[in-house]
Write a structure and sequence with these properties.
Length: 256
């Protein structure tokens, strides 16, 4: 487990240690990306499609911060608008129809708070994604690989299991935002990070997440282990049966 302080983990979570497209390429093969929400447009902050995890077809949905500056501007540094969440929901509904497991990859400070997002109905899109996710009868695993901020993350993390990378965070808001509200001083972010309990270790201890993924230096071994663990967990969940998969997810969130 990481020996960094909570604020240091928060800072590390914001670094581009892992990119959405690289994660997809190293988890699945034969990835076919789908575009658009069939209502408003195609948000580049959400990448979604179908690929093969070994012999198992899966739906992959990733929140994308981008790589170069031009892409980061297009994705608003990983802050989806309404069309992004509607695209994600469309693909999850498709996965449920065809009995495909769903894997989501999350790295977002939160949904885009701008005028265009509000006009597009981002709040409703997030709520609809959360509500409908509770009815899916296929295995769903959410992996937070950077920031997991507020409802913007929860919209695609209403899963049977939630995993976190070693240097990631999951919280209702950022340490800086918490410090600004509670202390009227954003410089007290390190203190806020301690209070928020946003680190993987703390969340695992409280049973809010099921697994912490150690990152290490050997990326080949890292991805090999991740693929193996995903396949095993999907197989275990499929043993429950469709209705039990849905109930297990609902009971998981009922505890909170």
């Amino acid at each position: 487990m990481s020996e960094l302080t909570p604020i240091e983990i928060a800072w590390a979570a914001r670094e581009d240690r892992f990119l959405a497209r690289d994660l997809i390429a190293n988890i699945v093969t034969d990835f076919q990306e789908f575009h658009g929400d069939r209502a408003q447009g195609d948000d580049p902050a959400v990448i979604g499609g179908v690929g093969m995890l070994g012999e198992q077809p899966v739906t992959m949905i990733a929140i994308n911060r981008g790589d170069e500056m031009a892409e980061k501007l297009q994705t608003r540094n990983g802050s989806p608008e309404a069309s992004g969440y509607r695209k994600a929901l469309r693909l999850m509904q498709q996965a449920n129809k065809f009995n495909r497991p769903i894997i989501t990859l999350i790295n977002t400070p939160g949904a885009f708070p701008g005028k265009t997002a509000e006009e597009g109905g981002v709040g409703q899109a997030i709520a609809e994604s959360i509500v409908q996710s509770m009815s899916f009868t296929v295995p769903m695993i959410a992996i937070i690989y950077g920031e997991g901020g507020s409802g913007g993350a929860l919209a695609v993390a209403t899963a049977n299991q939630v995993w976190m990378f070693e240097h990631s965070i999951y919280a209702m808001l950022s340490p800086e935002g918490f410090a600004s509200i509670m202390f009227k001083d954003a410089k007290r972010a390190p203190e806020a990070a301690e209070l928020l309990g946003l680190t993987p270790q703390e969340l695992l201890a409280k049973k809010i997440v099921e697994r912490v993924i150690l990152e290490g230096d050997d990326r080949d071994l890292f991805y090999e282990n991740l693929r193996r663990d995903l396949l095993q967990t999907i197989d275990d969940l499929f043993q429950l049966g469709p209705e039990e998969i849905k109930v297990q997810r609902q009971m998981r969130f009922d505890k909170y």
